[in-house]
């Protein structure tokens, strides 16, 4: 049963078709995302379990994420639960605001997730919270 009908798992046939096409073209599929307003990184696999691409999703700077929609559930509980629901998930940050810098080169795609200390003040700090990459010819997420 899909947990989010507005994401990949809400459209399993279309998802499999897109990912099967990527596999048949033997390309390095990188799917940028951001509609959930939370920071994510996951391998993208076809039904057989083969990794055919990666997804890098950015948090939002000022729009709320899960911390606002599920205020009674701690971010630690959510960050523990999501990898159990999504086995291909390699990174999840569900309570911090920020953005992702996606750098694409012929040899790799790299995501650097930057978190801001506050969105309620002009005085803030920004720090890279996570860096992950995928290398050309090997579609899976690895540490940067």
Strand content: 35-45%
Largest sheet: 4 strands, mixed
Q: What is the typical, i.e. mean, pLDDT?
A: 88
Cα end-to-end separation: 33 Å
Helix-residue proportion? 10-25%
Question: Order of strands across the widest beta sheet?
Answer: 1-3-2-4
- Number-wise, the strands total 8
Structure overview:
It contains 3 helices and 8 strands. The chain is of the alpha+beta class and 144 residues long. It has one domain. The strands form 2 sheets. A 4-stranded mixed sheet has the order 1-3-2-4. A hairpin with a 2-residue loop joins strand 7 and strand 8. It is globular. The mean pLDDT is 88.
Labels describing this entry:
144 residues, alpha+beta, four-stranded mixed beta sheet, four-stranded antiparallel beta sheet, 3 helices, 39% strand
Could you outline the blueprint of secondary structure elements for this entry?
Layout: H1 12-25, E1 29-33, E2 39-45, E3 51-57, H2 66-69, H3 75-85, E4 89-93, E5 98-104, E6 108-116, E7 126-135, E8 138-143
Parallel strand pairs: 1-3
Antiparallel strand pairs: 2-3, 2-4, 5-6, 6-7, 7-8
């Amino acid at each position: 049963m899909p947990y989010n009908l507005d994401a990949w798992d809400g459209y399993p046939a279309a998802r499999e078709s897109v990912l099967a096409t990527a596999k048949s073209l033997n390309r390095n599929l990188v799917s940028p995302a951001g509609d959930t307003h939370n920071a994510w990184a996951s391998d993208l696999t076809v039904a057989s379990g083969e990794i055919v691409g990666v997804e890098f999703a950015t948090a939002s700077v000022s729009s709320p994420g899960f911390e606002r929609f599920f205020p009674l559930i701690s971010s630690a509980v959510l960050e523990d639960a999501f990898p159990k629901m999504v086995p291909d998930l390699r990174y999840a940050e569900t309570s911090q605001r920020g953005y992702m810098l996606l750098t694409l080169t012929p040899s790799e795609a790299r995501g650097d997730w930057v978190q801001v200390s506050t969105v309620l003040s002009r005085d803030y700090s920004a720090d890279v919270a996570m860096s992950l990459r995928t290398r050309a010819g090997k579609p899976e997420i690895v540490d940067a």
